[in-house]
Amino acid sequence: MKIGVVGLGYVGVPLAVAFCEAGHTVIGVDADRSKIEALARGESYIEDIPDARLREALPRFQPTARYAELSQADAVIIAVPTPLTPNREPDLGPLTASATALATVLQRGQLVVLESTTYPGYTRERLVPLLEESGLAAGSDFNVAFSPERVDPGRKDYTLRTTAKVVGGSTPACLERAVALYGEVCDHVVPVSTTDAAELTKLLENIFRSVNIALVNEIAILCDRMGIDVWEVVNAASTKPYGFMRFEPGPGMGGHCLPVDPFYLSWRAREFDVQTEFIELAGEVNARMPHFCVEKIARGLNDHSKPVRGSRVALLGVSYKAGIADLREAPALKIIRLLAEQGASIAYHDEYVPELSEFGLSSQPLDDVLDHCDVAVIVTVHPGLDIERILDRAPLVVDFRGATAGMTAGKLIRL
Ligand SMILES: NC(=O)c1ccc[n+]([C@@H]2O[C@H](COP(=O)([O-])OP(=O)(O)OC[C@H]3O[C@@H](n4cnc5c(N)ncnc54)[C@H](O)[C@@H]3O)[C@@H](O)[C@H]2O)c1
User: 94-103, pLDDT tens digit by residue?
Assistant: First the structure.
């Protein structure tokens, strides 16, 4: 088959490579020419796809900025971003732009699958009419489906192939084609009855995480007041073999998904006169965490007779999660902003993030930041971060990730 993939980011690149590895040809379209050029040179900007794997796929992978190439595809998968506007409402701009452009080249007999996370009803009410601008009719002239992406950047134990893939079609025939398409790259495809059900499945999964992270974050704040070690409690509760699922507290939720997707549903729910209170509350609790973390750093400095103003704070790890460079919604950025507002002087070490251009900062060697700080703050624990070294060299250590769980030292403060 010839497969089109629109949007070559964290979702699109692994998908394109997987279809190439399954023996298909992939036309990858992206609006960002620098990404097209990097991919064409065999340089991957997605951590989960090493250059060598991309290069092996390249003979069958054609990255391009031209939608016209998609007219030759049997199926086109859309994986463009679905962010929020500054007012925290769905920003459907990239989706509309990609669907409008695709409609100009859409061919009879093609299958279009949306993978971008969106609210229930989007595919049926918005995507289909945009594609029908082509003059072709969905269901009879071309097929439409929605299949949520479950990629978890940095994860090694589950891959695209071994993670079950949910698919909903506009019609039974659309579903059948989409199930066959994903059967090429996934061992287990889970059909659901409608595109709406597939869209809501993705949101339920992400809201489940957001709510549970908020719950454990709230417990962490309470533990701080009560003088109980939250990590000890989480570890102990995790020994229950049923009825409990481990979630860890932290400096706040980051990434493209968890801080964003739940609000697609709360926005949509308002049209149905429903208030999604769990979603809003979880969002509030998680958004409060960077503020709580800054308070905790300030208290730690105060106990060492130092004000925040003028203190040198070294952040260790600034991307939103371990093992990847993604800075979207990273809590470290909020922590830096809040500390800078209070007059702290900031340095950071992160082997995955060489520059933080928004703050005019660049990553410093670990020993340099440890030797020239008043407090070292563990925000994201990338593989290989030397915790012993941090405890050894920094005058004060604040750990928001439980990386020092079980360790004790007078200069150590933990979430
Ligand atoms: N990153 C994840 O872990 C993850 C997991 C599951 C689902 N998702 C969802 O998948 C979708 C894509 O996320 P992502 O993380 O891959 O985003 P991304 O920003 O990494 O990649 C999206 C790509 O789309 C391109 N693009 C934007 N507008 C375009 C247009 N009009 N035409 C062509 N290309 C265009 C961008 O240049 C970018 O390269 C989102 O809806 C997201 O919520 C992401």
Answer: 999 999 999 9
Checking phi first, is residue 85 left (phi over 0); if not, alpha (psi -120 to 50) or beta? beta
Residue 131 and residue 99 in contact, taking contact as beta carbons nearer than 8 Å = yes
pLDDT in tens, 265-315: 999 999 999 999 999 999 999 999 999 999 999 999 999 999 999 999 999
Taking each helix axis from N to C terminus, what angle separates 230-237 and 195-226, rounded to the nearest 10 degrees? 130
Ligand 1, CB cutoff 6 Å, lining residues: 6-12, 29-32, 35, 79-82, 94, 97-98, 115-117, 149, 151, 153, 256-257
CB 310 within 8 A of CB 343: yes
Sequence-ordered list of residues with C-beta below 8 angstroms from that of 73, at least 6 positions apart, any chain: 2, 3, 4, 27, 110
> Do residues 95 and 118 make contact, with C-beta atoms less than 8 angstroms apart?
yes
Token pair, residue 87, equals 């007012």
Q: How far is the CA of 134 from the centre of ligand 1 (A)?
A: 24
For the stretch 9-39, pLDDT in tens is: 999 999 999 999 999 999 999 999 999 999 9
Closest to 340 measured CA to CA, from 294, 375, 401, 390: 294
Beta carbons of 328 and 390 less than 8 angstroms apart:
no
| CA gap 98, 263 in Å, rounded | 22
